[in-house]
Amino acid sequence: MSSNRLSHENLLRFARKYGPVAGVVHSSVYVCTLGSMYTAIASGLDLTSLLAQIPLMDQDLLTANAAAGHLAVAYGATMLTGPMRAVVTITATPAAADVWNTHIKPRPAPLGGRLLQIRQRAPKARGA
What we know:
Helix content: over 70%
Radius of gyration: 24 Å
Number of strands: 0
Number of helices: 6
Order of helices and strands: HHHHHH
Shape: elongated
């Protein structure tokens, strides 16, 4: 029970520290994985026999030759990669946050910041 609590606290600390950056990294990894799986399956990779062993997968969707069938198989394969995607998210998020904070995060222009300071110091007009 204490190891569950410890991992839950670590996850909350990670989410508080990296917040939206972690969400963007995780979503990007998910979309790339799903797209890669769909492309591989549409190109002829046969994952149907592997996914047929999962009891929650609809067998009719697995045998369909339509794009919906490919998408269902790609979704199932993507769900199987969940633990690996979590490791990639936890590993890549600090680097992505560093890049965001160093190079991408918008900074106020020096002149704009100076004008704001001047406006804050100016006396307010009375009786208006």
